[in-house]
UniProtKB/TrEMBL annotation:
Domain of life: Eukaryota
Signal peptide: none
GO molecular function, one term: AMP kinase activity
Domain Adenylate kinase active site lid: 118-152
Biological source species: Knipowitschia caucasica (Caucasian dwarf goby)
PANTHER family: NUCLEOTIDE KINASE (PTHR23359)
Transmembrane spans: none
Protein's recorded name: Adenylate kinase active site lid domain-containing protein
Length: 218
């Protein structure tokens, strides 16, 4: 968990790779559904994503939980789910989480990072012009296509997203704190947070697993 731009995607991929976990990003999963063949669910999901609103709890949960059930027998890392108390309660019904990670990053750092963030819309690949720049300025490393900046990452939009994040996340963080599974990390640099996170995860997680690919979306 963490506010927009806190580095959830960046650090999740690092964790999944280092510990051999199946990685599932809720936003990417919903994006794939929204762009898949037209079904009732895909149209609904797309309509919320396009309005930059959270997909209603019962819809996102109805999609995520069966996906997680497909991963039973694997160890996984979820990014961006649960985001609301309703989603957290639904997930609790399915399984007991081992650990919840929360990133506390100062506002000024978020603002600076996001003003420097560029994405490749078709794949969702994310770049930062100082932290992880593309090989060729303005172009995606894999396809060579143009990178764009999101309206959502401009300072005015960021303030609104941040306020919204705090309101929605607080009860979820409180729940996980009461369960004793919340680990919060504060800092301004992913690379400085990483060694602490790595040592806590190393103490909790069994030896690395070898899996690296998710089973395909059904
Ligand atoms: N300068 C700098 N940029 C970073 C650091 N960690 C991540 N970034 C960049 O900051 C931006 C946000 O990182 P993400 O991993 O996309 O963060 P997120 O929390 O998943 O963001 P949302 O998808 O907006 O919720 C990206 O452009 C990253 O490349 C860091 O330590 N320093
Ligand atoms: N857990 C979730 N619950 C509901 N909707 C979600 C969830 N995760 C992602 N989404 C949908 O996917 C979109 C993109 O998510 P994300 O990349 O995390 O960006 P944002 O920070 O704008 O929410 C959201 O605007 C929302 O429509």
């Amino acid at each position: 968990m963490g506010p927009p731009g806190s580095g959830k995607g960046t650090i999740s991929k690092r964790i999944a790779q280092n510990f051999g976990l199946q990685y599932l990003s809720c936003a990417e999963f919903l994006q794939d559904i929204g762009t898949a063949n037209e079904t009732e669910a895909s149209v609904l999901v797309k309509s919320y994503i396009d309005k930059r609103m959270l997909v209603p709890d019962h819809v996102v949960t109805g999609l995520m939980l069966p996906r997680l059930e497909q991963l039973s027998g694997h160890s996984w890392l979820l990014e961006g789910y649960p985001r609301t108390l309703g989603q957290a309660r639904a997930l609790n019904e399915l399984c007991q989480l081992d650990m919840v990670i929360s990133l506390n990053i100062p506002y000024e750092t978020l603002r600076e990072r996001l003003s420097d963030k560029w994405i490749h819309p078709a794949s969702g690949r994310v770049y930062n012009m100082t932290f992880n720049p593309p090989r060729v300025k303005g172009k995606d490393d894999i396809t060579g296509e143009a990178l764009v900046q999101s309206e959502d990452d401009k300072p005015e939009a960021l303030m609104t997203r941040l306020r919204h994040y705090k309101d929605v996340a607080k009860p979820v963080l409180d729940l996980y704190k009461s369960q004793g599974i919340l680990h919060a990390f504060s800092g301004t640099d992913t690379d400085r947070i990483w060694p602490y996170m790595n040592s806590i995860l190393s103490a909790k997680l069994p030896a690395q697993q070898s899996e690296s690919h998710l089973p395909p979306v059904a």
